[in-house]
């Protein structure tokens, strides 16, 4: 279990309060999403979780124990996959995996066995002797996943795992993450893709300006707003209204002369109504 307890982070250089008294609990085995626009504080929070950054206030507890830079035993439960490619471009997949295993002091025989399993799991075995520079973006992201899993973490943290990927690679990554979660891995990811959060996460925290604006299952957040949306295109602006069912939405739309669109409510709508701006807003 991950407990984020009253965590705040101020960057002294810029004076930015990136996180403001954030408290969250993420149960073991959960698939949890931190959803928010650019600059909301998502990366800061997972950098603190992975001890790359220290909080200005508050603490993180993993299975009841306080996380700190010197707690190697707790840190080993976590693996982080960053947003940016952190792979050496002149190394092959096999070499990257072997190097990671050695860095973590994993016995050679285990490195070789896990490397086989993980490359096969991510459908990368056929590319194992290629250098990273010859891989597609999707393959690089999968290799980062293999490398993170080599240490057998209990909690996998991913910062925008599918940013910049084409739709097919994005879906492949989703399938891999779903399988890992079904096998018991706790997954925490940040995203500003609505579809990603809705399709993968059992619970999401909507983060805005360093605060948790809402925390619930995607289904509940949408149900509470109203699962059927009506967009009314009124001249230069679009007005959206939300309803508990199609009948209520049709009754509202029926008497209007402007063009309308009936659609399913999304987490983006929840975000917009909650914080007054969308997830793509910078
Ligand atoms: N090293 C830093 N020094 C100063 N300010 C920073 C630093 N890193 C982030 N910030 C600021 O802290 C706030 C939160 O940034 P953060 O990167 O955590 O947001 P984010 O939600 O992850 O956004 P993105 O999706 O763009 O990565 C922003 O205002 C950002 O400009």
Automatic annotation (TrEMBL):
InterPro entries (alphabetical): AAA+_ATPase, ABC_transporter-like_ATP-bd, ABC_transporter-like_CS, ABC_transporter_ATP-binding, P-loop_NTPase
Keyword Kinase: no
Highest taxon listed in the record's lineage: Bacteria
ABC transporter domain segment(s): 2-234
Name of the protein in its database record: ABC transporter ATP-binding protein
One GO MF term attached to the UniProt entry: ATP binding
Swiss-Prot/TrEMBL keywords: ATP-binding, Nucleotide-binding, Transport
Family statement drawn from the similarity comment of this UniProt entry: Belongs to the ABC transporter superfamily.
PROSITE patterns registered for this protein in UniProt: ABC_TRANSPORTER_1 (PS00211), ABC_TRANSPORTER_2 (PS50893)
